[in-house]
Amino acid sequence: MNPHKKGDNRKIKSYTKYSGLAYQLFGLLGLCIFLGLKADAYFGNEKKFITACSCLLVLFSFFYKLNIDLNRKP
């Protein structure tokens, strides 16, 4: 048995967990921007209020969920 294998497994799990969170955030923001721009174009908004508000809502809700998940005891 290699004693370093268990520590390496934890590093890999940690890396994949946090990189997965980054992909989720970028995916949510991309979807939010796409749909917000479509909604702003539909309603004829010159300034992108719907896009900005939806991005802020996604950011706040994502970081709130992240805070709850990280503070939860395993």
What do you see in this structure?
There is one protein chain. With 74 residues, the protein is mostly helical. It has one domain. Helix content is 86%, strand content 0%. α1 runs antiparallel to α2 (49-71). It is elongated and about 55 Å long.
What number is the mean pLDDT? 88
- What Rg, in angstroms, do the CA atoms define? 18 Å
Stretches where pLDDT is under 50 for at least 5 consecutive residues are none
Strand content: under 5%
Cα shape: elongated
Care to count the β-strands? 0
Please count the helical segments.
Answer: 2
**What is the first-to-last residue Cα distance?**
27 Å
What structural class do the secondary elements suggest?
mainly alpha
**Structural domain tally:** 1
Largest sheet: none
Order of helices and strands: HH
Helix content: over 70%
Any key phrases for this structure?
single chain, 74 residues, 0% strand, elongated
Layout of helices and strands, plus pairs?
Elements: H1 3-43, H2 49-71
In short:
The protein has 74 residues and is mostly helical.
